Structure formats: C-alpha cells, structure tokens
Amino acid sequence: MPIKPPTLVLRRAALFQTGLFREDWPSGSDWEFLLRFAKRFRFGYLDAPLVTMRVQADATHRVHEGKDRALILAMLTQEAEALRRAGDRQAVRAACDGIVSMSKHLGWFYQVQGRKLRAARAFAAGFAHTGSFGLLLRAPAAVVR
C-alpha cells in the first residue's frame, strides 16, 4: 500500500533532519523524500483509510506522469546499485520489486499513448536491472499490440 503525503504525520525535527521535498521534481517527490526518511527513521503504518482523495484529470501527477515515473525509476535503480555494492541482498530485492512495478507502470503509460517502442524500452530496461522475465516478455509484446 503506498504512503500518501496527506496521511503523513511526522515530527518537525525529523522533517528538518531528513530535508524537505525536492522542488526540482514536477511531482512524485514524496517517493524520494520517503526513501531518505526511511534511511534515518523508523515509521509505522496504520491500515485504515485516513483521507479521501479526489484525483482530477489535470492533477499535477497526471500531467507529469511519464516524467515522474522515469524519475522514480532512476532513483530506485540508483538505490538498487548502491545496495548491491553494500551487499544488502534483502534490500536489493525490495528495490528490484519497486523497479519491476515502476517499469510496468511506465511501460503501460507509454502503451496508452501509442508509444510502443518507448514502452518496449521501459520494459527491457526494467528487465536489465532486475532480471524479471515478466518484463522481458512484455517488451516484444508492447511492440506487436
């Protein structure tokens, strides 16, 4: 279950120790912030609906969806490489799960736009980083659809 920023509750000191959200990202900076936060602090999860969100067609995350997903994917890939160098296999698996998920979403985004080759490249790049055969199979399928 993703963590949505409207549901975050954290101490002011922890926010300033972590650093603020990145303003150079068009949206999606919550992923980057939460990764930095998780490296310094532990947090809990309440499995209960805490807010009601209404997503509109012109919402910032929809307008910048492709760029957001590409930025998040690059961040996850960089994190997975750092974790590989550190020898943390369990964390590498978690990062790779994120890469697989984000690669699928980016590929599907391109498919909906009719950008078949971009979709195939997104799936293939995800495979290159994770070895996920599901992504490998999606790459050629994206072109023939």
List keywords for this structure.
mainly alpha, 7 helices, single chain, 145 residues
Using only C-alpha atoms, the radius of gyration works out to 17 Å
Q: What kind of sheet is the major sheet?
A: none
- End-to-end separation: 30 Å
Oligomer kind? single chain
Secondary structure category: mainly alpha
Write down the secondary-structure element order. HHHHHHH
Count of all domains: 2
Beta-strand content bin: under 5%
User: Total strand count, please?
Assistant: 0
Helix content: 55-70%
3D architecture notes:
There is one protein chain. By secondary structure, the protein is an all-alpha fold. It folds into two domains: 63 residues, no CATH class; 63 residues. It contains seven helices and no strands. It is globular and about 50 Å long.
List the helices and strands and how they pair.
Blueprint: H1 12-18, H2 29-40, H3 60-63, H4 65-86, H5 89-112, H6 116-130, H7 133-144
Helix pairs in contact: 4-5, 5-6, 6-7
Question: Brief overview, please?
Answer:
The protein is mostly helical and 145 residues long. It has helices spanning 12-18, 29-40, 60-63, 65-86, 89-112, 116-130, 133-144.
